[in-house]
Design goal:
It is built from 4 helices and 10 strands, in the order αββββαββαββαββ. Strands 1, 2, 3, 4, 5, 6, 7, 8, 9 and 10 form a 10-stranded mixed sheet that branches. The chain has a single domain, classed as Alpha-Beta Complex (Nucleoside Triphosphate Pyrophosphohydrolase). The chain has helices spanning 3-6, 62-74, 113-116, 145-154; strands at residues 10-22, 28-34, 49-50, 52-55, 84-95, 100-110, 122-123, 126-132, 158-165, 168-176. It is 17% helix and 42% strand.
């Protein structure tokens, strides 16, 4: 019996959503969350910068999860018909203490600057920032994110897998979808 059937290993379905906006200063920016909340002691993502997203709820599609997580993490309420497929990523044994693999569906969406400016400066998971596309890799991202962020910025669909050991990426395979 394989480890998923026996219950020894879990696969967690999740989403990542990258919201873009063109600002009047000529920059295109991406909404990112800095996991710096004091309200979440022991946060697995503490100190990291991420796209918005999270785990799927029971009987919830990936797109429904993306819409819910976006509302919860930014107050933005974008119709899920505005979400564009961006990629699919696997993270085997991402949380080894919980025996969890993560499988993430990625989407992108776009909002105008007026809508972008309605995003609050922080939520219970951390602070929200509109980061210039060219500066995303300067952030304290998960190691493996650096391998796929160029495809996010280019809005080019991709798939891949990143293996972590002790919080460090030890191998990553990312490929562009045609």
């Amino acid at each position: 019996m394989n480890p998923y059937e026996s219950g020894d290993q879990k696969n967690i379905p999740a989403v990542l959503l990258y919201v873009f906006s063109h600002f009047s200063d000529g920059t295109e920016r991406v909404l990112m969350i800095h996991r710096d909340s004091k309200e979440r002691p022991g946060d697995f993502h503490a100190g990291k910068w991420n796209g918005l997203g999270g785990k799927c709820e029971r009987e919830e599609s990936y797109v429904e999860t993306a819409a819910r997580e976006l509302r919860e993490e930014s107050t933005l309420d974008i119709p899920n018909t505005e979400f564009h497929f961006l990629g699919f990523l696997q993270f085997p044994n991402f949380k080894p203490k919980k025996s969890e693999d993560w499988s993430c569906m990625l989407f992108w969406a776009e909002v105008d600057e007026r809508t972008a400016r309605t995003v609050p400066p922080s939520v219970n998971e951390g602070s929200l920032h509109w980061i210039e596309k060219s500066k995303l890799t300067d952030l304290n991202l998960w190691d493996g994110d650096r391998d796929f962020i160029p495809y996010v910025v280019a809005k080019k669909p991709f798939t891949g897998c990143t293996w972590y050991v002790d919080g460090k990426a030890v191998r990553s395979e990312i490929r562009l979808l045609s």
